[in-house]
Design goal:
- It is a single chain.
- The chain is mainly α.
- The protein is built from 14 helices and no strands.
- The chain is elongated.
- The protein starts with a helix and ends with a helix.
């Protein structure tokens, strides 16, 4: 088809699966194979609308995420992870949103992404020039650190990743600080005593301590929870 026709069709499909209520299950099931093909397009407009459509379909209960895993398969997930390094933030943004949505799912959903190499990509995005992408990367990491101690260990093993989170929790703009602080606090909450000791050695209290002076009550509560986790683990 002509590029303009393909762009219009992809835009229409993206808008069809957007918003509430979600499209009927059978319609969503039919959309995924088409999107799994379109995601390999070299046309940026097609690519952008395709990944936004996938992000909409991944939003909500675990069944929505499982649909993408079951129908789209590993090839789809690998391609979305590749797009986190795309030259255009218009493509990176929905790719990151979809990944973040999937990381809110089950332990299996999150682990699959980690096995495909998600964490080093997120580490790079923490210093992205776009504030919204830095925020979404922190939010995604907060979903990972809310997982198992094995998944927390994976975060700790990526060079510079946890330190970057701590730095953002201490110094970034409020919206980014909040998400980074959640990521650090979740890691402290779910980590083993040995992992908490490593986090303290990585200066996690600096990030938490900065939030203790915040006038924002929600941020303060998260910081206090983090301190509590440190004290509980000695």
């Amino acid at each position: 088809p002509k590029p303009s026709m393909l762009r219009n069709a992809t835009w229409s499909l993206s808008n069809f699966v957007r918003g509430k209520p979600a499209p009927p299950r059978d319609i969503a099931d039919m959309a995924v194979p088409a999107l799994a093909t379109l995601i390999f397009s070299s046309d940026e407009a097609v690519l952008t609308d395709t990944v936004w459509a996938l992000s909409y379909l991944s939003d909500g209960p675990d069944d929505n995420i499982q649909r993408l895993y079951s129908i789209g398969g590993t090839g789809l997930l690998k391609r979305v992870l590749q797009l986190l390094s795309h030259s255009s933030h218009s493509v990176q943004t929905p790719a990151l949103r979809m990944v973040g949505n999937c990381a809110t799912g089950s332990e299996f959903h999150t682990q699959t992404l980690l096995d495909l190499g998600l964490l080093p990509l997120l580490a790079q995005l923490l210093s992205h020039p776009k504030r919204a992408i830095r925020k979404e990367a922190c939010w995604t990491l907060s979903n990972v650190t809310a997982g198992t101690d094995t998944q927390i260990q994976a975060v700790l093993e990526v060079p510079g990743l946890f330190s970057a989170l701590v730095n953002l929790a201490a110094t970034a703009e409020y919206e980014i600080r909040k998400e980074a602080l959640w990521a650090v606090s979740n890691a402290l909450s779910g980590g083993t005593a040995e992992q908490v000791a490593v986090m303290v050695q990585n200066d996690c209290l600096r990030g938490i301590g900065a939030a203790l002076y915040s006038a924002e009550s929600r941020l303060l509560l998260v910081a206090l929870e983090g301190v509590g986790h440190v004290l509980k683990n000695g």
